[in-house]
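User: Just a sanity check before I run the rest of the batch. Below are the structure tokens for the first item. I only need the designed sequence back.
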């Protein structure tokens, strides 16, 4: 773009990087056939070939960079990274010469992080050699599975993975609940004994459609001081290539520069400690055999009287019987918003219109020691309850029963949610297509 006017996206005005010929490249993005996951490269400029310009666009590094920037601006980071690899354009770029180089250096390295996250979330947590500990599998009426592992050296750094199948009419509501970060405090659960509550959730910046920075402060039980994290969340559309949607979340340190150009603030209270967090969400086709694994896990749970079918490793700490009772109580209390098509353990047939939503997160709470009682509480109660509350709020959004979300979605329809509906529609059409779909 050649103009200097800022673009208004969402609640804030963000000055965009100006890259020559990006608009022209953007017009060709949808016709672009980028290398797929198998690494093979197809024609990158069919429109130019039709016009007789064979080789001119394909071999021009500047144009490849502009195309990659256009893909990034269209929230398709992974496709941008594949394009650059296919054309042997290495990032980070030494001696960046223009805004395109600067933008590629800032964004493309995150693609590798996202690819590692997706690979981990698509791997079977029970595969041989896994370090995952099974906390619960296919638990409750919402079919929740939770896995975790602790850092062997410190025993304080936690990595957790949670996943559930959801009906396709839950996809947009779920994404909207994740996106409306200012409303987190209104629905995230709080505990008084032990004390654990979200004190605040403030959006610091919004860049484009799918990128925001959120500050979250959580109060911990005495004698621990409150913990805080500045989360950089970025949604990526990989629907045309793989059928997936991914949201990468990474913590930012004080003084770091956000994409909008503002600086991450320092803590505003002396007793608050900033922590490290890395993770993300993945939305994809429900893997084959999911129902068979669910039924086997629940049969084993019923036979042995346990919360799950077993562990890749033995779960630490006391028996989960009390936790199982709390889960049953939670599911019973909130059973009013259930529907006949939920995949549950009550003998009903699961829907055939489900997708899988997964989240993986790594947390370093910056503690020298975590009491076993607190660790068990977080692993066995907090994660399950928060996940179920997220699903429950999404159900309310779907059914039009959450007025704050309804109002926010309506206000952002033109700049965000109309696009979300269009792209998720493309994802669902691809996932549930009766014929094979070509990858872009």
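Assistant: Here's the designed sequence for the first item:
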């Amino acid at each position: 773009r050649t103009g200097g006017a800022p673009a208004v996206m969402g609640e804030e005005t963000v000055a965009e990087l100006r890259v020559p010929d990006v608009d022209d490249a953007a017009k060709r993005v949808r016709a672009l056939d980028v290398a797929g996951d198998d690494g093979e490269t197809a024609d990158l400029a069919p429109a130019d070939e039709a016009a007789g310009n064979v080789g001119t666009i394909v071999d021009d590094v500047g144009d490849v960079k502009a195309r990659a920037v256009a893909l990034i601006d269209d929230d398709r980071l992974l496709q941008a990274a594949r394009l650059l690899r296919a054309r042997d354009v290495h990032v980070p770029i030494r001696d960046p010469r223009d805004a395109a180089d600067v933008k590629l250096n800032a964004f493309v390295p995150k693609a590798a992080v996202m690819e590692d996250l997706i690979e981990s979330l698509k791997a079977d947590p029970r595969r041989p050699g896994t370090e995952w500990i099974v906390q619960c599998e296919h638990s409750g009426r919402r079919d929740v599975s939770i896995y975790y592992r602790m850092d062997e050296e410190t025993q304080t750094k936690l990595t957790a993975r949670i996943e559930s199948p959801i009906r396709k009419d839950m996809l947009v509501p779920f994404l909207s609940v994740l996106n409306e970060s200012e409303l987190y405090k209104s629905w995230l659960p709080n505990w008084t004994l032990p004390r654990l509550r979200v004190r605040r959730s403030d959006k610091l910046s919004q860049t484009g459609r799918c990128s925001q920075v959120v500050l979250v402060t959580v109060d911990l039980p005495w004698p621990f001081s409150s913990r805080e994290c500045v989360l950089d969340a970025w949604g990526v559309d990989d629907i045309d290539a793989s059928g997936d949607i991914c949201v990468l979340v990474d913590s930012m340190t004080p003084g770091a520069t956000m994409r909008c150009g503002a600086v991450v603030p320092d803590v505003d209270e002396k007793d608050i400690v900033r922590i490290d967090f890395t993770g993300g969400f993945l939305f994809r086709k429900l893997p084959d055999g999911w129902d068979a694994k669910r039924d086997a896990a629940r049969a084993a749970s019923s036979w042995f009287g346990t919360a799950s079918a077993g562990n890749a490793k033995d779960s630490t700490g006391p028996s989960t019987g009390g936790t199982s009772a709390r889960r049953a109580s939670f599911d019973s209390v909130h059973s009013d918003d259930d529907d006949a098509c939920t995949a549950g353990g009550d003998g009903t047939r699961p829907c055939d219109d489900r997708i899988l939503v997964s989240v993986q997160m790594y947390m370093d709470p910056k503690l020298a020691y975590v009491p076993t009682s607190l660790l068990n509480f977080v692993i066995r109660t907090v994660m399950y309850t928060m996940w179920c509350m997220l699903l429950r709020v999404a159900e309310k959004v779907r059914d039009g029963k959450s007025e704050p979300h309804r109002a926010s979605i309506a206000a952002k329809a033109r700049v965000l949610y109309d696009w979300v509906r269009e792209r998720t529609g493309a994802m669902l059409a691809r996932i549930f297509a009766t014929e094979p779909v070509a990858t872009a």
